[in-house]
Amino acid sequence: ETITIATVNNSDMVRMQKLTDDFTTKNPDIQLEWVTLEENVLRERVTTDIATKGGQYDVMTIGTYEAPIWAKQGWLLPLDKLGADYDVDDILPAIRGGLSMDGKLFAAPFYGESSMVMYRKDLMEKAGLTMPDAPTWEFIGEAARKMTDRSAGINGVCLRGKAGWGENMAFLTAMSNSFGARWFDEKWMPQFDQPEWKNTLDTYVKLMNDAGPQGASSNGFNENLALFQQGKCGMWIDATVAASVVSNPKDSTVADKVGYALAPDTGLGKRGNWLWAWSLAIPAGTQKAASAEKFVAWATGKGYLDLVAAKEGWANVPPGTRTSLYNNPEYQKAAPFAKMTLASINSADPTKPSVKPVPYVGVQFVAIPEFQGLGTTVGQLFSAALAGQMSVDDALAQAQQVSVREMTRAGYIK
Amino acid sequence: MARATSVRRTAAFTIAAWIIALVIFFPILYTIITSFKSETEAIQGFKLIPSGTFESYVEVQTQKDYFKPFMNSVILSVGSTLLALLISVPAAWSMAFSPTKKTKDILMWMLSTKMMPAVAVLVPIYLLFRDFGLLDSRIGLMVMLTLINLPIVVWMLYTYFREIPGEILEAARMDGASLWGEIVYVLTPMAVPGIASTMLLNIILAWNEAFWTIRLTTTNAAPLTAFIASFSSPQGLFWAKLSAASTLAIAPILIMGWFSQKQLVRGLTFGAVK
Amino acid sequence: MATQQTRTLARFMMAPSVGLLLIWMIVPLAMTLWFSFQNYNLLNPANVSFAGLFNYKFFYTDPAFFQSIWNTLVIVVGVLFITVIGGIAIALLLDQPMWGQGIVRIMIISPFFVMPPVAALVWKNMIMHPQYGVLADINRALGLNPVDWFGQYPLLSIIIIVSWQWLPFATLILLTALQSLDGEQKEAAEMDGAGFVNRFIYLTVPHLARSITVVILIQTIFLLSIYAEILVTTNGGPGYASTNLPFLIYRTALLGYDIGGASAGGIIAVILANIVAFFLMRAVGKNLDK
Amino acid sequence: MGNIQLKNVNKSFGNVAVIPRIDLTINNGEFVVFVGPSGCGKSTLLRLIAGLEDTTSGTIEIDGRDVTGAAPAKRRLAMVFQSYALYPHMSVYKNIAFPLKMAKMAPAAIDKKVQDAARVLNLTSYLDRRPGQLSGGQRQRVAIGRAIVREPSAFLFDEPLSNLDAALRGNMRLEISELHHQLKTTMIYVTHDQVEAMTMADKIVVLNAGNIEQVGSPMELYHKPDNLFVAGFIGSPKMNLVSGEIAKPYGAATIGLRPEHLTVSKTEGKLSGTAGVTEHLGSDTFIHVRTDGAGMITVRAPGDTDIRFGDKVYITPDPSRIHRFDEKGLAIR
Amino acid sequence: MGNIQLKNVNKSFGNVAVIPRIDLTINNGEFVVFVGPSGCGKSTLLRLIAGLEDTTSGTIEIDGRDVTGAAPAKRRLAMVFQSYALYPHMSVYKNIAFPLKMAKMAPAAIDKKVQDAARVLNLTSYLDRRPGQLSGGQRQRVAIGRAIVREPSAFLFDEPLSNLDAALRGNMRLEISELHHQLKTTMIYVTHDQVEAMTMADKIVVLNAGNIEQVGSPMELYHKPDNLFVAGFIGSPKMNLVSGEIAKPYGAATIGLRPEHLTVSKTEGKLSGTAGVTEHLGSDTFIHVRTDGAGMITVRAPGDTDIRFGDKVYITPDPSRIHRFDEKGLAIR
Ligand SMILES: Nc1ncnc2c1ncn2[C@@H]1O[C@H](COP(=O)(O)OP(=O)(O)OP(=O)(O)O)[C@@H](O)[C@H]1O
Ligand SMILES: Nc1ncnc2c1ncn2[C@@H]1O[C@H](COP(=O)(O)OP(=O)(O)OP(=O)(O)O)[C@@H](O)[C@H]1O
Ligand SMILES: [Mg+2]
Ligand SMILES: [Mg+2]
Predict the structure, then answer these.
(1) Which terminal CB of chain C, N or C, has fewer other CB atoms within 10 Å?
(2) Same domain, yes or no, for D209 and D263?
(3) In E, residues 11-30, which contact B (CB 8 Å cutoff)?
(4) Where do transmembrane segments lie in this chain (chain C) (predicted)?
């Protein structure tokens, strides 16, 4: 029996593909077919397929955004036969919460991430500052401006600017949480006309103008990663998984100079970090559920972590899913960022992302079908504010307008 | 114009042309250069001489098999092209040799079938493919690519056929050739340069079609466009790998194009030859 | 060439292409039309209902709508302008005697062989990026500030990338047309005392009219549906500065999964394309008859 | 066999009647030449016979069989096109073999026929070449070879020699005549060349605006043109046509005088005039004389004439060879 | 003025010397015709003079000025191309006006010149048409019109009439001769047509493989060909060349007998033979006689000859018009 698996093309997933011999020797009657695509295309591809019941895949890689929506539609099979040794309770509670509905797990996390501050210890020292473990936005702003030395090609801070719900809006939504802002109030009324959002966006735009890299409005995760690795950023607030790359001397010119801190806050009780997990789920339409579930159990189980550790070293183990991993001293030794990663993940709560109450689930997104389109539109507006083609006020006003329009149409606003 | 032009003139043109050609070719050249760099080298600013490592290629191959999507690309582009030729040669034949007042309108209408943005019909098409069991099938995709490129093929063949003297076809008719004999033994072989260049153009278009080939396939029918889609923007450094993958994806068509460059130039006249 | 028999046969021979294209046009068009009157979100398939003209109204009132149409046209006109003018210039150059003509020609047509998403990625990351793009390196070497292409000139950047992809097509067609220009006509003009510029204006341009028309018609059809390049580079931003109609539809269809709205957008795009084609045919169509 | 009959044939393009109404009988074995000014419908007529165009009305019979609606391939005719219409992608051998292949003849039989034809046409050593590698005259012969292998009931030639230069044209003319003597097959030949029409035809059909002006042997047409049109069209240089006072005494509205039937003298003659341009061909001299009262008249004088531009000259026609026409342009006999 | 001198001109394409070495003087006002077999270098020579090709070595002078390196536009020559090379997208008016416009002449002056030229060439009613809407002869005249408005110091014509049919060709021949009489400008004219060469030229240059075989007036070439090549090339039908035993008594290796200088009889004559194909032109009859001992000989007989295919005939040459050549093919005088 051949099962078809749709995966995203990041390094952990790719590594898994290389290690499947382990699975196929244990399950000689199951063959694996891989469809590897980049994130956006993958999402489009699997969503079309599952929504039209195309039945092309037996296992799909989905994120914490899709999981609750799809589960609610009944498109996913509950994962209740993962085996005795799977140890569901070992999964980090924040992650598990985002992937479950009514207490049933609908997607098994392959790796999880939050966001945090990665910074250059040498530059921080040069600026005469010390990074606290839990910095405030105020500190970040001050540090960034002090570190900036444009003639030497050093930007104080690199942040996402490229329009897109998973690009700048992931970052800005998480950031806004720490400023006390929210996307919607309890009646699904958009909140871009509130001072919290203005505060968020003002801070962001000013900071980037003063201390950000040129062309920031088209920088996404990858562009910033490259900048940071070349030593062009003093600080970078982004996904925790990046830590393993920037600290790897093979890939990074600054590997030995990177320090980590929690994402900043403003003292309101929420930090500006997100929560994401790439997870494996089984579409309800598959004919090969049993084999698929076997595979999911193998890929997300504890045994897989040991397998990677044995073959590629502890530093390459997919992070962010299991408590046991963070308790493993070998892992702690191999991954200096482990502690900070765990703290970041634990500090995010998808069900209560912001200071004020919200009607939705999701830290850096809103888990409703309309969010991708709306998020991207708002992202376009905010990137215009960053590029200086629009004022912050205009961007917010227009964002409010399109959000109201969209939510009214979708029937949230009665 | 067989006048010997002065060496200086030729030199000036040569220099100008080379500069322009290099500028235009530079992005491709740089991609190829980058594919021979290591990942860190790739992001370290402008550097024309790579360290000459093949590690990206090795990594690309271990990450994803190149051969199968390559074969799919070949099958899809060549297959859809042959299919398109099969149905458009007769059509172009009748438009070129038996034109009516409506011929121009039909040509324009054919082109207009390409006006619907692909994204708008993804779901309808996906539903159709699902219902006919064509998802991830080479046949389905081949038919699709055929239909997408058919208007262009008809246009090119039509303009090309118009340059063939009708008398030769009449001669065949007088010689007792049936319609089939006329097309197979006379028209097609005579139009070989035009058909060849149409084929080339169509193969290029089919090879590069990156919307449907990704959305309607999973594994069996996935061509190189899908191969490329698995290397663009993953998390982590990917420039060199992407360059290597891109080089692999465009190399076959580039090499084919280079070898057939003369054909392309000769055939793509669109009826401009007297 | 015109007995009743051959005419009948001719209709018969055209049937497969016309028939297939008709099906290929009508079936998706009909489905799209049908969906455009439905409230249909792909992620909420339970709630499908008749929407009347609401989808059209919603699409039409999108804040980005008018700008997207404008951008669509700007991209089409901009790319056509660059590729036709550039194509003529390069074709003229390539038509001159030179050393290594074959290699030069190969290099110039190469961009046509590159898949659009790859081309966009390469341009975005390796050429135009203000930090590590080659253009930025050049700027810095000249002591200038690197240009933030996608932030400051998003539409222009996209036009440049798309033009780069289509320039070879225009060049190829115009070059072949140029080579078919009667040598004796050129010589006659030369003997009549026409210099290079006059020969170009009075002889070359009129001769190229037909090929230019073909370039314009075919490219327009392709350019009206450009979106992959935008998706990869600017994602339609900043603001709506680089959102064109296909991108707007993409956002509706594949991000919002609003099939009804996207269908309405598709129908609007078809109408717009037809309007453009109509004016194009009136403006340049007569060149085809020559 | 090759008996071709056109009955009441009419051909219109749209509402232009290119051929208003034609009746014509061509007998088996005849060499018939169609002549007429450009655009008069010669090619159209040939194509109607070949079946490449439909008749608008009327019937065409070949050997008594009505073929009006039959496809070209069914008529057993062979055609040599003005442009030769050789298949450029096939060798000479394949070109000649093509109609036989279409007739599904056995390869051995095909080979024999092609070799025979090649021998007759002196093409044996070129069989492997492509048409593009042949000279004009050789191409011409290939086109003829392709026509003769089929043993058709009639050949149709549409200005087959018009693309050749003078020397080659002379040779080919002889070859085709020779061929007709050998095969004795009906041939219909379109030309606008005087010499070809006169030397090759058994019967010339003079067409004008889609109508037949006269049908007859070359000498009939030369000596007894039915009307002014034929008189002016047959013969080179053209017959001089004089009307008015000078024609009256002959009881005609117009008289026709062929240049070769006029004698010119510096001293005396019927008509006086001044020599205009004199064209020396060596063998002959054509003198264009501006006569007093009869307009320009061309005279053919011997090659060694001593008349020069501007000389006062006198012209005398051969009285037995004066052609007379009435007001309607019809010959008075 | 239009004095053209070629000194020591050599032209090679690659290492093929198309024109090995030529010296030629063309005087002001002369009408010079280049003739020679296809591929002998006529067009090349014309294009060298026009400046459309570079000489490999040697100099070209026009009116004493060395123009070897000058651009075509600087030579004040006008050329009529074999293909006419009209500008297809311009009206007749614009075609003719083009050289004047290029010379930045005032519009009023241009108009006058174009109208004048159109009147001369009978093109007035076609001025608004495009070349594609004209007949062959009209196109030809436009090409000539475009050449004459410039008042060049010399005209170059490259086979200007080769695309026309016989009738039109005859008319145009006269028109060009007429034009030369009027303008008295130097004209250089390439043709492969006997009649054109003989009737139009003041001076004929016979070329063979890039070499000049003979230069002279038409009558000189006709009556006194320098060698076998010229003898065979000038005259139509071709001179009969007989070598061997029959030539001996005349003290020559080869003798040349023009068809028009032979008389044929059924009863008696110098050479006996059998009549082969006879070509009746009305005005003349060409009889191809298979002689006993002298091969095929063509004879021109009157139009009303009674000799038929297969008759036994006798041929007698005019003794005063026998051309004699030595072993090298040079004329014996
Ligand atoms: N397909 C057509 N449609 C309309 N008119 C046509 C068509 N074919 C020919 N004609 C017209 O019919 C007339 C006769 O044409 P045809 O070709 O038979 O002349 P022709 O005698 O062969 O002349 P030529 O000596 O120039 O070849 C011409 O006036 C031509 O314009
Ligand atoms: N550009 C060229 N390159 C090489 N050879 C050439 C070129 N142009 C002409 N020739 C050769 O030079 C010779 C003379 O050519 P040219 O055109 O002058 O002949 P021509 O006397 O005009 O013949 P025709 O009567 O057929 O027009 C020919 O053998 C031809 O093949
Ligand atoms: Mg004709
Ligand atoms: Mg020539």
Answers:
(1) C
(2) no
(3) 13
(4) 12-37, 69-94, 106-123, 155-178, 208-228, 248-281
